[in-house]
Every structure is written in C-alpha cells, then in structure tokens.
Amino acid sequence: MEHQTDRKPNFPPRVLFFPLPAQGHINAMLHLAELLAMADIDVTFLNTDHVQGQLQQRTHIQAKYAAYPGFLFRTIPDGLPKDEPRSGEQSILRVLNSMLKTTKPILKDMLLSGGVLGSDRSPYVTCIMADGIFGSLANEIGDELNIPVIHFRTISACCFWIYFAIPDIIKAGELPIRGDEDMDRIITRVPGMEAILRCRDLPSFAQIRDVEDPQLHRIVEVTRQSARAHALILNTFEDLEGPILNHIRTQCPKTYTIGPLHALLKHKLTKRLSTTRSSKSIFEEDRSCIAWLDSQPLKSVIYISFGSLTVMTRDTLMEFWHGLVNSNKRFLWVMREDMVAGEDGEIPPELVAATKERGCLVGWAPQEEVLAHPSVGGFLTHSGWNSTLESIVAEVPMICWPNAIDQTINSRYVGEVWKVGMDMKGHKCDREIVAKMVNDLMVEKREEFQRCTAEMARLAKLSVDEGGSSYCNLDQLIEDLRSVQQPGMSIN
User: Fold this and answer.
1) Which residues cross the membrane (predicted)?
2) Residue 388: which CATH number?
3) How many domains does the chain have?
C-alpha cells in the first residue's frame, strides 16, 4: 500500500469535502466545493452511499459537476442497514452516531490508498474540509496522516459561539434549567450576547436539566475541536455577525467568513456568464409552484417551509393550516411526506376549499428561486441557517417557528437584533397567533420590515461583490489551499 507521504510534490491541490449527510449541510458544502472548483482546485466530495444514491436519482448532479475536470464524487457507508430510516432529526442523529463509530478506519484507509479519493490529475488529498460535526474524527486522521484539516460549520456564528461558551455558562450556575422556571431568564455568560440571550433562545441541546448530559458534552467537545483545526469556515458575513465573530477569533484566529455562500456562488457564476440552475436537493423538487407563483400579485404570497428534518403533530399542522387560511393571504406551503407524525386524518373541507382558492401545496420546492420570486412577500420558516441567509439575501421578512439545534438562536437574532422578522418562539402555536403574525408581516408592519430587509440584503450583496469581505476571504482561502502542495506543509 502506497502511503500518502510517498507521492511526488508536483500535483495540484485536492480538497476532500466530508459533510454530515443532511440536506442543509450538503447544500452549503457543495456551494463551497463548486467555488473552489471554479478556481481550479480539485475537489473530492465524499457522500454516504445513501445520500449519493438520492442525489443521482433526483438531480443531474454528475452532469453538473462534470464541467470541472478535477471534481469527483466518492461514497462511504454510514454503517446502518439499507432499510433504516434516514429522515427526521432523530434519524440523522442515528446516522451521525453510526458514522462516528465506524467511519474512521474506512476513511483513513481511503486516504492511504493511492488514488482512491483522487484522479491522475491529482491523486492525493492535500486538505480535509470536514463538517465541524466530524471535527474530532477529522482532526485525529489529519494528525495521523499529516494532512491539514479545516472545519466547516454550517450553523450561524452565534450558535457556534454559544456551543463554545457552554462550559462557562455551567460554571456560572446559569445551567441547568431548573424545573418550570422563567424561560425568559437572561444568560449572561456568552460574550457579546449578555443582554439578549434568554433560556428559551439557547440551542436545543443546551436547554437541559442535567449538566452531565452526554450529548451536550459531545457538542462542546466537537465545537472546541475547531480551535485545533488549521482554520474554521463559517457561512456568514462580517456585517451580519461581526461582533460575535470578533469573539470567535479569540479562540479560532483563522476564521474565514465566506457567506452567504449561495449568493457568492451566484455572483461568481454570473461573472462566468453561467446562470444555469441546478438542484442540489436530496428531495425531488416540484417546480409547478413556480408557474403558480407567476400568476400571483406582487408580494402577495407567504411561503412556508419547515426544512428537511422538522416533524410536527397533526394538531400543530391543523393550527398552522387554519391560521394561514384565516389570514386570508395566498400561501405556498412545502409539506413533506414525512413531516407529520402519527396517522393521517381527513382535512376539514373548509381548508381544502380555501387551499384550492388561494394556496399551493408541494412536497419540496426550489427554495432560492421561490424566495427570489416577486410574488413572495413573507417566509414562515423553521429558522435553519441556510433558509435564514436565503431569506435575508432575497429581502423577504420572516416569521420564525424554530424547532431544534441552532434554530432557536437564529430566530432570536432575526427578531431582536437584525429586525428582519418575528420570532414565534415562546408563543403557543394556535391559529389566532399564526393569522395575526401573517397579517403583521404582510400588511401591518410591512413597510418597517421592508426597510430592514432591504438594508440587510444590501450588506449581504456588498459582502459577495468584488472587494467585499466574503469575496476577499474566499480568495485568501483559495491562496492558502494552493500553498498546501506537499506533505508536511501547513496552511500559513
């Protein structure tokens, strides 16, 4: 077996991308992978067998990236039986736990085996771009094989910083949450958030009643591993999260902010005179919704999507549905087949009739295109980070109904700091509240939100334009990756 350090040093760099097998993580990392490929850096994108099968079945993924000679897709098993469910938050956690147990020897062997992850053009991996969730695993392999490791976190900088600060919150006695105490109690031990972070805004993993919770400690350990990586990449921009980024850089000095990645990629593709849309979704998109939007008045539609993992009860579904209908607004709703827990029931006839009159339901939508459509005037969202950034870039104000992980802190910043939407968290999910918030967003407070969203979208655009912070940070990242051409070299 040929060892990586035996190779000749005259090959171009090759970056190995290793994402968590979840829609949002894959999307963000594919955006960055394409940006690097456009800069003539070779890329190997390592998906699980299951995810790659879905992409090949539902997209033209291979044909799209065939335009980049050094771009390869490779697969790795996730360690679960083929018939094991892989949708929903709990299923993703099972996949993650399985991969953490089984992946290291397989990945290490792939890296050691000459050419398995490369091509004749660039046979060997010169840098591992690992999803931060795999931070410990990637750091161990990188140390053993002398390969630089960069962590890519697909959460917001705010969420990353809270994860990093959890030991200090516990030490100060601000965790655990005790009994039925006031969830509006302020958490003061996260630098930069002393006045705005409440118990209810903590990431879901941190809203615990037992500070010995093993999942919490694993999140902390993984997050703090980023301080050991050669660099940290965040899909954000300086004008959005600058104060928090200053704190992060005290622990992770080499932090690249290169977001919003979807906007940066679009800008670069436009410069190359390429505006071809291509899906990266592991769900099958229903494009009939675009034709429906084409027939609707300007800014008249509220778009609803709770992401790829959120699962709700039938009762919650009914409250949302009644609220949307009672708001008398047009709506486009992404309703996944696996979104509702429990048995199906009959839909009340008044909901069916109202939906036929002014609604459109699809199983999955081309979200970036939907949010950019002139008929869309609001977004009812789960506050996933990709969705939040896409909404900001599109100047679409949000109603945030966060479900888990980073969504609770994202929604707080949307409502309290950036003022580009409303945080539904803390309210009971009932039809009256849904209807009122929709009307507030689309009518009563429309001008106020339009001013704030326009300004934030302007700053996002500046960041990805030539000379902007994210544009320049990407150039610096590319330069650093090119400097890692041979074993033993590290990123400067």
Assistant:
1) none
2) 3.40.50.2000
3) 2
Q: Domain check: are 274 and 302 in the same one?
A: no
| Segment 109-123, tens digit of pLDDT | 999 987 899 999 999
CB 9 within 8 A of CB 484: no
Residue 385 domain flag = yes
- 165 lies in some domain: no
Q: What is the largest CA-CA distance in the chain?
A: 70
Alpha carbon distance 325, 18 (integer Å): 42
Q: Same domain for 353 and 234?
A: no
CB 67 within 8 A of CB 33: no
Are both 339 and 415 inside the same structural domain? yes
Q: Residue 167: exposed, middle, or buried by beta-carbon count in 10 A (0-12, 13-18, 19+)?
A: middle
Write the pLDDT tens digit of every residue in 33-54: 999 999 999 999 999 999 998 8
Q: Report the pLDDT value the prediction gives residue 490, as an integer from 0 to 100.
A: 42
Task: Please report the beta strands in 284-337, taking only residues with DSSP state E, as ranges in sequence order.
Answer: 301-305, 330-334
pTM: 0.93
Q: From residue 356, how far is each of 330, 332, 400 by CA, in Å?
A: 10, 11, 25
pLDDT at 242 over 60: yes
Inside any domain, residue 166:
no
3, 117, 139 from 144: Cα distances, Å: 12, 17, 9
**Distance from C-alpha of 314 to C-alpha of 343, rounded to nearest angstrom:** 8
Q: Sheet of 42-48: strands edge to edge?
A: 71-76, 42-48, 14-18, 127-131, 149-153, 231-234, 255-257
Helix (H, G, I), strand (E, B) or coil at 213: coil
Q: Which domain holds residue 339?
A: 287-443
- Whether residue 273 is found in the same domain as residue 295: no
Co-location of 31 and 109 in the same domain: yes
Query: What amino acid occupies position 133?
Result: I
**Do 294 and 339 sit in the same domain of this protein?**
yes
End-to-end CA distance of the chain: 30
Instruction: Give the tens place of pLDDT for each residue, 318-362.
Output: 999 999 999 999 999 999 988 998 877 889 999 999 999 999 999
Q: Is residue 2 part of a domain?
A: no
